[in-house]
Amino acid sequence: MKRMTTRNWQEELTWLVDAYRAVLPIKELLSRIQTQYADGQVWTTLEFQDAVIDVVVHDAIVQKYAPPRSYTYRFLKQYTDAIERVMAELSDALVAELMEFVAVGRMTDRSAVDSEEMHHVTYRVPRQVARTETDITVTCRVASVFNEVGLKIWEAGWFLAEYIFAHPEQFEDRTVLELGAGVGFTGIALAKCVRTKKLILSDYAPRVMLNLRYNVEINAADLYLSPVDIDTVDWETWDPQHDSVESQPDILLAGDCVYDVAVFPYLVRVLQVFLGSETEQDGSQPRRVGIFAATIRNQATFQTFLDTLKQYRIEYEDITVESTKKMSDTPLFPYENREQFRLCKLYRSIQASSQ
Questions:
Q1: Which Gene3D superfamilies did the record assign (predicted)?
Q2: Residues 6+ apart with CB under 8 A from 203
């Protein structure tokens, strides 16, 4: 018989649903559960245990786009162990859910736990931040073991999405090309909250492209505000002049593409061909611009990028401080701090355009 609930657990546990969908560290989830619901040890009650199963583990998005089975198993096992340590009664629903994961797939076998190559993560953006009528969610299939750079979400991509949420007017009615889109998180977030003229998400490796297309398709059920295309872009040969007029971008977007000195010549080449036809514009259209977000892992590497831009007469404008003023005080996504990022706009220098 289902217990009568006296609290709105659906609303109270929104934070836990968000954390679970995003596959955040289990230790953090359990610590907050035990701290937030410490009075009267609410976190050990049968009602609360049932709510965790009904609201979190059986969440509709989680059921459709699941985290790794190993993650669910560890969450249930560690939560059960914590309850048993304080000698509280276990809910039948919690025990049944745990036993299913023990019996199906032998999740206690380490080889089974480590065998999952891909899983889903979902992030919710409140409507007040996305400036939409309802909250938006972005779901991406990512690699469980990050041996392919294009199959994970990079932190600068999260930061770039926050910039978009805070400055939607910069993208409205523009044609946007995202370089190195990877799993597509930033571009999908853009498509869900801003009406661009057209949005093109690009990458190169075949496996990455297949996954990118999958992620665009599974998010399409929520309806994009922008038309979204997928394109393979080779940084060594791409030329926007070969595209149809309506597909020629006027904004080049990139998150965490500035990390490897070896690819700088190709990245700058893309910027050159994108910005190089600046003189052909009659001034009636907004100036073409690259908007790049980078994680500063090595200052020398980033300085090399800046030096390369200067060498090829590409104007760099650091907009990090200015841009964060319009963002929420606390990060929306699970990165540690904003000081690690640089956000910039890139233009063809006026001097270069006039030559």
A1: Vaccinia Virus protein VP39
A2: 150, 180, 181, 182, 209, 212, 232, 233
Distance CA 301, CA 258 (A): 8
- Residue type at 243 in one-letter notation: D
**Residue found by looking up tokens 């289990």 in the block:** 26
* Collapsed DSSP state (helix, strand, coil) of residue 93: helix
d(CA 15, CA 37): 13
- What is the rounded CA–CA span in Å between residue 298 and residue 258? 10
* Separation between Cα atoms, residue 287 and residue 113, nearest integer Å: 51
Query: Model confidence over 5-33: pLDDT tens digits?
Result: 568 999 999 999 999 999 999 999 999 99
Looking at residue 261, the DSSP 8-state letter turns out to be: G
Tokens, residue 38: 């410490």
Which contiguous run of DSSP H or E holds residue 203?
A: strand 198-203
Rounded-to-integer distance, Cα 253 and Cα 257, Å:
10
Q: How far apart are CA 259 and CA 216, in angstroms?
A: 25
Give residue 215's Cα distance to chain centre.
Answer: 11
Given a contact cutoff of 8 angstroms between Cβ atoms, the answer to whether 256 and 293 are in contact is yes
332 neighbors 157 (Cβ within 8 angstroms)? no
Helix, strand, or coil (residue 326): coil
Taking only the tens place, the pLDDT of each residue in 245-302 is 667 899 999 999 998 999 999 999 999 999 975 455 555 567 899 999 999 999 999 9
Q: What angle do CA 70, 73, 74 make, to 5 degrees?
A: 85
Q: pTM (2 decimals)?
A: 0.90
